[in-house]
Design brief:
Largest sheet: 4 strands, antiparallel
Shape: rod-shaped
Helix content: 55-70%
Radius of gyration: 37 Å
Structural class: alpha+beta
Strand order of the largest sheet: 4-5-6-7
Strand content: 5-15%
Number of helices: 10
Number of strands: 10
């Protein structure tokens, strides 16, 4: 038969249980605005539940993350991170290639060829001839400006690579550390490991925004993190750092993992977006400028040498000839483009047998603007450049649209997760009242037992 002492022991446990439940409710309320926090529910049961022990007999904590939602959010963050960076970088490229003010490359090209059309009207006019040289100088300056601007942007993005790699290494090290702390916390202070699990998930999602990863939880409760290609970043309590090194012969920064270059496989997250813009988009822009400059220099020089200048001498090179660094390579043509002439009399406006007033070669050079020299002889120089600018703009809009779409999906998934595991302040308010009432009832029961004990002692003593 239960004794009064047994009752006191039971009520002591009841008071401790209600105090613990109140502390968990207060913890939930304090973290109501924390998107990384998982609501903790107190479970009262006489049998051992497969939940988290509280350290108090019969009391367990329930805190279940939705692994499907967590994984889906991680995947969307990887896509969103890449498109967000690409959208910003492509907008910068677009502003460089097509400035809002000043003379752009397309205008400079039109003015250059237009100056030959003007010269054809008055081929002996030194002012018109000087205007040809001036427009040619403006054209070369514009090629230089674009090339330098793109290279500066490429260099700026290249300097960001080690910074992002450092952020990634900090996060993987933290995940490995939490893998070690979680079982230790579970053993020393039951229930405290739940907060560490939330911190670990937050790190995983921050890491997802930076690079493409896959992860899974092992039977021991540790999280294993790998690249999308399966190379280990975190195993139990050990993390494997990414390293940076020049990509010989390129001066740009490459990424290595355990001595293997993985730069080409980095295709999502902020790092993936950065590398795609740096290594593909900007490289394509520079190549387009080089092709345009090399073709323009070669074709204008070719035509200019077919004419004669104001003194009747055979025309020479109008631009400094471009020498390919390797067979089939136009690299550096835009950067090194220069006008070869300084004397306006040396402009070969006349035909080979024409006199000072002849304009045949000036008209022929003017006609180069409409020649289909690009895209396998299907586009003029203006069509080629306009098409390229259109592609850059389309890529920028596409990246922005994709970023908005993925951000919208992320918001929906996070709202769904918040409804599933987030804190509901109305429910917590009800829990506070419930646990307070239970605590007060246990306290009254304890007082009753104490009173009975006192009376019993007095009877026995009397």
């Amino acid at each position: 038969m239960p004794s009064i002492l047994d009752g006191l022991d039971n009520v002591q446990q009841a008071l401790a249980a209600q105090q613990y439940a109140l502390s968990i409710t207060q913890k939930n309320i304090a973290n109501a605005g924390n998107p990384s926090y998982t609501r903790q529910d107190v479970i009262f049961t006489n049998s051992e539940e497969p939940e988290v022990s509280s350290g108090i007999p019969g009391i367990y904590l329930q805190s279940k993350r939705n692994q499907f939602l967590d994984s889906s959010i991680s995947q969307e963050l990887q896509s969103s991170g890449g498109y967000e960076f690409m959208s910003e970088a492509l907008s910068q490229i677009e502003s460089i290639m097509k400035p809002e003010s000043g003379v752009g490359l397309q205008e400079a090209i039109s003015e250059f060829f237009g100056s030959f059309n003007t010269l054809s009207s008055t081929p002996e006019d030194l002012v018109a001839r000087q205007q040809v040289l001036s427009s040619a100088e403006v054209l070369t300056v514009e090629f230089h400006r674009l090339y330098a601007g793109l290279q500066q942007l490429q260099a700026s993005e290249d300097r960001m690579v080690p910074q992002i790699v450092q952020e990634i290494n900090v996060l993987t090290a933290e995940i490995a550390s939490l893998n070690e702390k979680i079982p230790a916390a579970k053993a020393s202070q039951p229930g405290s490991e739940l907060t560490l699990r939330d911190e670990r998930q937050k790190c995983l999602e921050e890491l997802s925004g930076l690079m493409g990863i896959d992860y899974f939880e092992t039977e021991s409760g540790s999280i294993t993190v790998t690249t999308r290609q399966g190379a280990a970043l975190v195993l139990d309590n050990t993390s494997y750092d990414l390293e940076t090194a020049p990509m010989v012969p390129s001066p740009l920064t490459g990424i290595q993992l355990n001595g293997t270059d993985i730069t080409a496989s980095m295709n999502s997250g902020k790092l993936g977006g950065l590398l795609r813009v740096r290594d593909e988009t900007i490289a394509d822009c520079l190549q387009v400028l080089d092709v345009m400059a090399a073709t323009l220099v070669e074709r204008v020089n070719q035509q200019h040498t077919l004419g004669s200048d104001l003194d009747g001498l055979a025309g020479g090179d109008f631009f400094v000839p471009f020498v390919q660094p390797a067979p089939g390579s136009n690299e550096g043509a835009a950067r090194h483009m220069q006008v070869a002439l300084s004397d306006p009399r040396s402009i070969a406006a006349a035909g080979a047998a024409g006199g000072p007033g002849d304009n045949e070669n000036a008209k022929s050079i003017f006609a180069i603007e409409d020649e289909k020299l690009f895209s396998t002889a299907t586009e003029t120089i203006n069509q080629f450049f306009s098409g390229f600018i259109f592609r850059i703009g389309s890529e920028a809009r596409s990246a922005e649209d994709n970023m908005i779409t993925h951000n919208g999906v992320i918001e929906q998934l996070m709202n769904q997760r918040d409804a599933d595991i987030g804190v509901n302040l109305d429910e917590e308010a009800i829990n506070i009242i419930k646990f307070q009432k239970a605590y007060e009832a246990s306290a009254r029961y304890a007082n009753t037992l104490v009173t009975l004990s006192d009376e019993l002692i007095n009877l026995l003593g009397g």
